[in-house]
């Protein structure tokens, strides 16, 4: 499975929360790097077209994403 096809594309609300580092309880994944992050990760935000959204960390990892080394990926 290609990472850019896994998960859901962000909605307008998802994107606003991601950029604003607002808590949502969702897991953010970046298709180009294969990494998933938690809310508020201090890493530089990705481009919107590369962002994928998952409901749980387990779902992101099952799709082939690994946890971010800066924030722990939503532990």
From TrEMBL:
Residues 15-71 form the Ada DNA repair metal-binding domain. GO terms for biological process: DNA repair; regulation of DNA-templated transcription. The keyword Membrane does not apply. GO terms for molecular function: DNA binding; methyltransferase activity; zinc ion binding. Pfam families: Ada_Zn_binding. Transmembrane segments: none annotated. Keywords: Activator. This is Ada DNA repair metal-binding domain-containing protein.
